[in-house]
Design brief:
alpha+beta; 2 domains; 4 helices; Tscrpt_reg_AsnC-like; sequence-specific DNA binding
Length: about 130
Amino acid sequence: MSYAKIGEQLNLSRVAIQKRVEALVENEVIENFTIRLNATKLGKVVSAFFEVEVEPRFAQNVGNSLSADPSVISIYQMTGPSTLHMHALLKDEEALENFLYKHIYTLEGVVRVNTQVVIKRFKQGTGLEL
């Protein structure tokens, strides 16, 4: 939405909105601006979540290695057991199988992988939305 359109809705000028947004960026409240692409229309029809259990001493290496894969959308290390929670978008079931057996299971320190494939999406976010 343009600054002018936001200004209309908030009864402020375009310049006032622009200065406020610039201040939010400068103060790192806004980290970046982005667009959301439809993965299915781009040929990524399999959306899968993974719980990758790793030996604690390998968590950093496994996390870094998986982070480098372009199919991985997000990856987090959570509290509790040494588990990485990951979301990936893949072309098809064959790509999912290759991802599991050639990218995850081959990593040193991986103990177990639990995979869940999305069948229906109710909401998708990219962070804190206003």
